[in-house]
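OP here, attaching both records as promised.
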Amino acid sequence: MYASAKYLIHADVRTNGVVERSDVVGAIFGQTEGLLGDQLDLRQLQDSSKVGRIDVSIDSEGGRSFGTITIATSLDRAETAVLAAALESIERVGPCRADCEVTHIEDARAAKRRELIDRATQLLADVEETTVTSEQIVEAVRQQARVEEITRYEGFPAGPRVESSDAIIIVEGRADVRRLLKYGIQNAVAVEGTNIPEEVAALTFERNTTAFLDGDRGGDLILRELQQVADVDYVAFAPEGESVEDLDRRAILSALRRKVPLDQVETGTTPRETFAPPTDDTDTDPPELSGTAPKPAAESADETPAENPDTGVEETVPLTDGDSAVIEDTPAEPTNTAGSSATLDDSDPMPAGEPAPSAETDSDSSSVAVTDVKVTTPETLAGHVEAVITGGLKTARLLDDSVDIIDEVDASDAFDAIADCETVPESVVIDGILTQRVLDIAAQRGVAQVVATKTGELVKQPTNVRIRTAAQFEI
């Protein structure tokens, strides 16, 4: 009846004794019978389906009963009001005195209209969200066309220009090839793991080859094997802790511009640490697009040939400050200042009667006192930060709660050092970028704080680990 009802009568009923639902229904029929005439008699109205089922909900507590009455009607508004008023004439329910009060009459159609408005608003929002512009349609088609251009070279995912291009880019997996295709780079081929296929290795001896690898340990391992079985000309890495498949167009082009010749990467070391990429990631056009003709290699010693990732044609790109691959620290020759000889020549006899020089002399003496150089361990966390980060050690130092050194490893091995350390470090100082992976293992092991040169893109930050950078220390 609720589905076809126009109005709903809501009333409250209270009795001074314990009654049941059937008692209330009987009282409604019995005490309204003949009260409103034949046209509004409840039994006849129910028989003609103008009044629906009488719903009663009754509870008892403390020797008294109370509940609600709901009656659905398809009568007009005036007839419904008269029927509602008749309910308030009920004075007894069973053997108990009763009080019935109509709280309100609800327009069932208004409730349906509210539901209709809510649903229509929701449907309208869905239509607006799915509406796309013509530019979005064209761009979606272009991207889909690029993705569909993935082919296979000797059974391995590759761009459509791998077989015809003079230059190729080696990446790790199919997702990397798909990402490069999305931004118009069509000469990439995937090795699908750290085991370099013979077919791809053979191709590197015929083409100008760039290895574009993830900025993690997996990328290091692939490059080390490429150094042994392939002929790679250049190396480029994604930012620390990121994968090629996650980069946007600007990051991809920036990483490829920062590539370095393979012979500048030291064999047997962590490849990403043998050169420092420049901090300027400005997405500028290559020389042939900017209108400036590249200089010949013989005209400038500060330029090196590079390959355009889009066309595979070599171009000359000026080196930036960060393009120096290896800087060798040559120890300076010791020099002696006037009157500061640190050794004595046997050919110069000592004047008679003069005492032999001692290791300790007065400040006015021209001799240099020979003393042992004593290396001290920093006694504060700030001292360790200054030694590791400001000193540029490229290491990770694990400290206990007394600020004593538990272990010191290469910065790229910080994850393994924290995971395998028998004594849980209180603090970890890293001369490098704090990645999500290192932060997670630090939180799992119970490290109190981590200090790094700077932090990478952290998706989640554990509440039990304090994250600090070197800039927060007054050094």
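Record two, same layout:
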Amino acid sequence: MDKKNQQETTSLLTKASDTITIFMCGDVMTGRGIDQILPYPGDPILHESYMKNAKGYVELAEEASGRIQQPVSFSYIWGDALDELERITPDVRIINLETSITTSDDCWKGKPVHYRMHPKNIPCITAARIGYCSLANNHTLDWGYSGLTETVETLQRAGIAYAGAGQNLREAETPAIVEIAGKGRVIIFSCGSETSGIPSQWAATENRPGVNLLKDLSDKTVWYISEKVKEIKQQRDIIIASIHWGSNWGFEIPQEQIRFAHKLIDHAGIDIIHGHSSHHVKGIEVYKDKPILYGCGDFLNDYEGINGYENFRGDLGLMYFAYMDPSSRKFIHMQMIPTQVKRCKINRASTYDAIWLRDILNREGKRFATRVELHEDNTLTLQWG
């Protein structure tokens, strides 16, 4: 898309007052080291082989990038992302919350890593006006069923919608409904796969709390989801499937995931697939005018200063802004803002890093006939078809 066409697209989007703009990103980890720099740090004791105190992750970040004046403000962790959100003003703001919000000490035995944030630090989520948190991931029950209960209660008190976990299967499967005045609704289903590291014991049942864990990626699972969508779907609804799946590292996208994503669009009426779990961005597909984000990458974490997997650039992320037409449920446009985690906050990525992300997305998008264009302001736009 050349500069003239980009300007024309922006103009059309501005005029289309009923266009729904959706902000999405990957994993947001406000626990552990991030929790320690916030105004109300929780108990820093960890049960990891690598680190025994969460303050150690803050020290690693400071060694890598410089001192962090503590405590930081609740808005600090969002850094430059706040200006971008204010500039674009999306109708819905969606994250995968990769953290239990609790003071529980009931860590899940046998699990190598546990994330938790003190409930009094919940303003760090509302500071960015996040409207929805996906909970169907491999850290929601890190601090047991009591930790899950406190997580859900904290989100409810803060007025933040969520899905993907609950006190039983019915609650875990129930989607979130976000009403957008004068435009329509965005309905978000959240689910996870064992391939992302979610323990099988975490699956919610009729009489046990847990997460909405997919049994598999079969046709039967697609049919089951389609029935859930039919129960709630109305005209002008944009339906999102937020899925925690796949390994932490590696650009390869299994054929099973591609097939499942396509069938969710073909048979379950899904309009956007918001995939996460990988610690780095992965390829993007547009299938029948529906965007599929196979892996959004980490958006915020406390990995700064930890060596290993540097070739994947896990410090880089993207702010995904999808523009949808609710009348036709058609995908119109996607803008992406390159970011980098530094000093435990989100920063605009440098030109060099934006070029790196562009080249990776173009390389990985070849199999899907998608590519991205980098503009003078270091933003990216998606091309397809």
